[in-house]
Amino acid sequence: MRRAFIKTLVTLAERDERILLLTGDLGYMTLEPFAERFPGRFFNVGVAEQNMVGLATGLAEAGFIPFVYSIAPFACLRPYEFIRNGPIAHRLPVRIVGVGGGFEYGHNGLSHYALEDIGVMRIQPGISVVAPADVEQARSALEKTWGLPGPVYYRIGKDEKTLIPGLGGRFEPGRAQTIGDGTDVLLIATGAITTEAAAAVALLAERGIRSTLMVVASVQPSPVDDIARELAKVKVAVTVEAHYIAGGLGSLVAEVAAAGGISCKVIRLGVAETPGCEVGSQAFLQRRHGIDAAGITERIERAVGSRAGSGNILPERGGIHGS
Amino acid sequence: MNEKKGSEFSRKIRRIILEEAMRARVGHIGSALSIADLIASLYGDIFSSLDPCDGDRDRFILSKGHAALALYAALYLKGWITRETLSTYCCDNSMVGVHPEHGLAGIDFCSGSLGHGLSIGAGAALAGRLRASARRVFVLVSDAECNEGSLWEAVMFAAHHKLANLVAIIDLNGQQAFGYTGQVLDLSPMAGRWRAFGWDVHEVDGHDTEGFSRAIEALDTTKGAPHVMIARTTFGKGVSYMESQIKWHYWPMSDMEYKKALDENGDNV
Questions:
Q1: Strand pairing partners for B142?
Q2: Residue A202 lies in domain
Q3: DSSP state letter for A223
Q4: Are residues A128 and A8 part of one domain?
Q5: Which residue of B112, B126, B150 is in closest CB contact with A50?
Q6: Residue ranges with strand state E in chain B
Q7: Backbone phi, then psi, for A220, in 5-degree steps?
Q8: Can you say whether the dihedral through the CA atoms of B3, B7, B12, B13 is positive or negative?
Q9: In a domain, B35, yes or no
Q10: Would the CB atoms of A63 and B153 count as touching at under 8 Å?
Q11: Which strands sit side by side in the sheet containing B166-172, from one edge to the other?
């Protein structure tokens, strides 16, 4: 998603010279298309994320639209107070781009994991929070949000290829996108881990469990009506996020269910505990924390019961890799 | 205690600081008095022709936001806010609080959390350069604010990019909330530190309004290094019993103390 995002940003920057790009010394082999095309509008500010957000605040007040870029926890946790007291308090169009949701930097350890970025951002009413599910949605989400008057946080994945079947790059601020119409269970996912939820949908179908997948890339503004409408159709909804269980998508869905008095069980899948010192690949860590396709499938089967009978062997994942 | 170096404008600022702090029964009086002469120089002189509605105006950030009362006084004396607005200081439903809010005319940026203002100022200065504008950006920080690591991030950036249109002003009163800076976290040599980071350093008397204005106007804000004015000041300046006293960071005045303060400022009640 990173390269697609930057490619789209270059296209937008061709049209609007207010767009600037700042990085906290990250983005090697990713940001070069922008840096080379607009050397006077690209600033590597050094390893100084607080200053980067402060700079962007001063630039935005003067009419620019600065994008600040780093690995997600560095982009949003280190300078969090600067984001709050800067672009959020002043309602300025600063764009925080955090790369790598959840365990995408698997071997790098907890310092590089983004497990609370969506939570800490969405509790601030004055910022849009966008977590695209795939490359095409990243592209359309940027096209539809780059010019918003207030600040935006983007959680951008590293996967440049995988496409969610049926999503087709759809995105609207404040809306969710649904795929399928099964009513045995509703899966609701955000960000790059939507690929695992989509794979779980296929696995569940093989077991006779018909599901609907809802993609919530516009975490804020929240697609409250869309979520409420789909929750009302099912008895069990399962949220899937590469994030701590508290504060993120699962909390959002639970809030919608509670506020709407919707009689639907909400099972929140996410990271339940602070990861230990054992690092590993993203796939390993997602499996360990039960948020890979197999883990999601297993949890849903326990919740709604397998209609395909016992004894099935989990098939290989497939069919979701785009070009 | 009133030295003649301060201007009539700064005397008026001090009077308003005392009046409003007394009416609202709040503290931060010593910090506001510390910068009264610097604010008088900025708003009485350096910004004399500034239009707060002009998008290409000079910017000012009071990064030591807790001294906002001095700034409000200047905004009132400039006619940018009304007496009625000023007199809502620390009332309910007021934009005139302990720290500056940008919704108020003449306030470019909110502040209140130390170590934030200089990086915003560096961004504003960079914006001026990108727009080929002659605008200058002034950021008033406290000496204790230099405890904040984030301030030094901005110091490095501004020097690296030679933001000559950025002017930091340090209110060097040697005090912080809970002690004297030399005892809490020694910042000396202040000038040496900024010089080592590549800034154009000027050590000035922060209560000499004319001298300060002259020093500012002599700066080359078109090219070269960013500038820092290290302004030696006295905390609580102008009120004898507050000067250099830690407790007046937070303490409100009694009726007797208020009368004495006004007397010393040349305002008979």
A1: B171
A2: 177-304
A3: -
A4: yes
A5: B150
A6: 59-62, 137-142, 166-172, 175-176, 179-180, 200-205, 227-232
A7: -145, 125
A8: negative
A9: yes
A10: no
A11: B59-62, B137-142, B166-172, B227-232, B200-205
Residue B251 gets which letter from DSSP?
A: P
Question: Which pTM does this prediction carry?
Answer: 0.94
Nearest to B41 by CA among B15, B6, B77: B6
Q: Are A220 and A155 in contact (CB under 8 A)?
A: no
Instruction: Say how far apart CA B242 and CA A56 lie, in whole Å.
Output: 39
Intra-chain end-to-end CA distance of chain A, in Å:
13
How does pLDDT run along chain B (269 residues), one tens digit per residue?
A: 334 466 899 999 999 999 999 999 998 999 999 999 999 999 999 998 899 889 999 999 999 999 999 999 999 999 999 999 999 999 999 999 999 999 998 999 999 999 999 999 999 999 999 999 999 999 999 999 999 999 999 999 999 999 999 999 999 999 999 999 999 999 999 999 999 999 999 999 999 999 999 999 999 999 999 999 999 999 999 999 999 999 998 999 999 999 999 999 998 66
Q: CB distance A55–B126 less than 8 Å?
A: yes
Strands, E assignment, chain A: 19-23, 42-44, 65-71, 95-99, 128-130, 152-156, 177-179, 185-189, 211-215, 218-220, 236-244, 265-271
Q: What is the CA radius of gyration of chain A?
A: 19
Q: Are residues A87 and A7 in the same domain?
A: yes
Q: Is B226:B219 a contact under the CB 8 Å cutoff? A: no
Strand partners, A218: A130
Q: Are residues A141 and A272 in the same domain?
A: no
The SS3 assignment for B65 reads: helix
Q: Which amino acid is at B231?
A: A
Reported residue count of chain A is 323
Report how far residue B242's alpha carbon sits from residue B247's, in angstroms, rounded to the nearest whole number.
8
Two tokens, residue B244: 């250099």
A6 plus A148 within the same structural domain: yes
Query: A71 Cβ partners below 8 Å, 6+ apart?
Result: A26, A98, A99, A100, A105, A112, A114
Q: Shortest CB distance from A62 goes to which of B115, B131, B150? A: B131
- Tokens read off for B185: 């976290």
Q: Which stretches of chain A score pLDDT less than 50?
A: 307-323
Whether the Cβ atoms of residue A200 and residue A293 lie closer than 8 Å to each other: yes
Min Cα distance B98 → chain A (Å) is: 15
Q: A202 with A287, same domain?
A: yes
Q: How far apart are CA B105 and CA B95, in angstroms?
A: 10
What the block records as the tokens of A256 is: 């919608």
| Contact assignment for A58 to B123 by CB distance below 8 Å | yes
Tally of residues, chain B: 269
Question: Can you give the CATH number for the domain in which A229 is found?
Answer: 3.40.50.920
**What distance in Å separates residue A91's CA from the closest CA in chain B?**
11
Name every chain B residue with its beta carbon within 8 A of the beta carbon of A89: 102, 110
